[in-house]
Amino acid sequence: xxxxxxxxxxxxxxxxxxxGRRYGRQCRDLIHDLVANFDRMLVPEEYLEEAxxxxxxxxxxxxxxxxxxxxxxxxxxxxxxxxxEDVFRLSCSQEMNSWQGxxxxxxxxxxxxxxxxxxxxxxxxxxxxxxxxxxxxWQPYMVLLHGRPDDGPAFxxxxxxGSVGRPGLSxxxxxxxxxxxxxxxxxxxxxGAQWAGAGxxxxxxxxxxxxxxxxxxxxxxxxxxxxxxxLNYTIGDELGDICCVETMPADIAVLRxxxxxxxxxxxxxxxxxxxxxxxxxxxxxxxxxxAWEVLSRREQPLERADIYAAQRSHFPRQxxxxxxxxxxxxxxxxxxxxVGDLRERQMWAAMGSPCEHRFLRYDL
Length: 364
Hints:
The chain has 364 residues and is an alpha+beta fold. The protein has twelve helices and 15 strands. The protein is 32% helix and 25% strand.
C-alpha cells in the first residue's frame, strides 16, 4: 500500500521580508542543520573557499533582477538567526556543483539521475509534472513553501530548508526543471573547464518563473536573463501553452510538444544545441523516453492519473526508471513528485518515491 506522507508546509505571507522571517522562524532548526552540513555535502575541502566566493558572485545579479528575493533571504536569515551569506548559499547548490565539475574537468557535472519533467495540455489549460531526483541525504531538508506575497501571485514551491525554492505552481503558471550538462555556451562540449561566470542561480530562476503571468512572459524573461547553471525548464500556463526550454548561461532553445504533451530529462534535445535525435532517446535519455512511452499509450487528453503512472514507472525488468532508486557511494531516489493543475489551482504531490507514496492535494 502506498503511504500518505505530507510535506512540511511553510506558510509565508506579507511583505517579502516578513515572508522570509516567518519562513526562518518556522524552519529554524532545520535551516541551522543544513547550513552546518551544506558545504561539505556539495564541495570537497580543496574547493570550498573558492566555491563560496563563486556562489556569492551571484548576489549582484539577483539584486538587479529579483531584489524581492534578496529581501526574503534577509528575512530568512533574521528569522533563523543566521548570517545572510550562509543563507544565500543555500539557494546556490546547483551552481556550486556545476562550478566544481568544471574545475575538476569532469563530464559528470550532470547528476545521472537528476529529475524528469513533463507537461500536458488539458481542456484549455495545463498539467505540469516534476520528479526531483537527487541524493537521499537531501530528503530530510525538503519543505513546501506556500507563499502569499503582498506584491505578487500566490505560489507553492518546493525548497531545501532555507533556500528560496525550486519548481512548483502559482496562480498563472507551473514549472518543472531538470539539470543539463554544464556548457558555458553552445560551442563548448560538456565536461570541460570553461565557466561562464556569475548569473542568476537556479533556485532564484524557479521563483522568478513562478511570478510570471504566462508561458510567453516566462520565455521573454529567460531570453533576457543570464543564468549560472544549465537546466531545462518545462513550463505550462493556465491557457494551455506548454513547452520545454533548454538553457545555457546566455542561450535558450524552445521545444514544443508534438503529441499534446512533452517530456524531458538530462540530455539536450534541441537541434541548435546539438541535441539527441528521437531515435537516440531510448538509449541516451531513457527516463525522458520512458515517460513519453507511458504517456503515449494513454487516451488523450491526459489526466493526472496518467501522469502519475509515468512518474511511478520503472524501466522494464529494473527497479529504477523515471522513479529513481540508485545505490552506490551516493545513493539517490526520487525525493518528491508533483503534478501542478493550472485549471484547479492545485498541486498533487508525493513525498519520497512515488511508487511507494500517494499523491496528496495541496491548495494554492
